[in-house]
């Protein structure tokens, strides 16, 4: 296969690991920044250009779309999909997972447990908002944040009010979320590839920090997930429509609560904590994904041919 990895930099750990894993399995791999593509929309024939010229024909695109370029990155992924190039993950699935409120809405529709979450755009019902999430402290999040950025804890009603007014004044969309005290600054990251958890770790926040993200100084170590947590992670990934995802879960007294689903999960932390070659698992899944797509196309072509009316032959 010829694979394109959409990434801002070929030197990033996750990008490098995917390239090495793909080449080790005999594939050609290119790395390109989504911002370097030009999109052309014309009737019946979408076109794409990279640095002034059409790129090679790819068998698969692996998007590594950072939060800072979500909008344009999704447009590029969508364009490849319009041109018939399979993407591991697709634009719609990435967009669902990036919008925290939308993700929570979809999960709860499928009866998957999440922390109680409230979204509002005015402070006049603040007391009701706090009552719904079980009182302070609460977690306040930007809807489009990632890697712990835009995630804050508010200990008092006054702190919540000040924080919301500031963020709303800056035009930010936010959500207020139940604080799960028993998680004690820890969460679980389950790395889902296809329909199974291939690696998992428990992350703990550093002293004085409530966010357990490794980018915020948290520490991770390998953990064998209970089947209930594995099932929840796989189910959440399916709801988003993702092939590859990092699912963050809180360990509550009532079981797993889905905190976030990351469509471009980093490989460095999970591979070092678990000593599992996650990159190879992703490429193996990519191979099966493309094979299935090709088999489906061949099958559809046969069915279409059988459905076509055949001209009557004269006797």
Short structural summary:
By secondary structure, this protein is an alpha+beta fold. It folds into 3 domains: 2-87, Rossmann fold; 116-179, ATP-grasp fold, A domain (Dna Ligase, domain 1, 2-Layer Sandwich), CATH 3.30.1490.20; 183-274, 2-Layer Sandwich (D-amino Acid Aminotransferase, Chain A, domain 1). The chain has helices at residues 13-24, 70-82, 91-98, 100-109, 126-132, 157-169, 227-240, 268-274, 278-307; strands at 2-6, 28-32, 37-40, 47-50, 60-63, 117-118, 138-142, 151-154, 174-178, 186-193, 196-204, 219-222, 244-252, 255-262.
Question: Your description of this structure?
Answer:
With 315 residues, the protein is α+β, with helices and mostly antiparallel strands. It folds into three domains: 2-87, 3-Layer(aba) Sandwich (Rossmann fold); 116-179, Dna Ligase, domain 1 (2-Layer Sandwich); 183-274, ATP-grasp fold, B domain (D-amino Acid Aminotransferase, Chain A, domain 1). The protein is built from nine helices and 14 strands. It has helices at residues 13-24, 70-82, 91-98, 100-109, 126-132, 157-169, 227-240, 268-274, 278-307, and strands spanning 2-6, 28-32, 37-40, 47-50, 60-63, 117-118, 138-142, 151-154, 174-178, 186-193, 196-204, 219-222, 244-252, 255-262. Strands 12-11-10-13-14 form a five-stranded antiparallel beta sheet, sandwiched between helices. A four-stranded antiparallel beta sheet has the order 6-9-7-8, with helices on both faces. Helix 2 runs antiparallel to helix 3. The protein starts with a strand and ends in an 8-residue tail after the last helix. The relative contact order is 0.13. The mean pLDDT is 89.
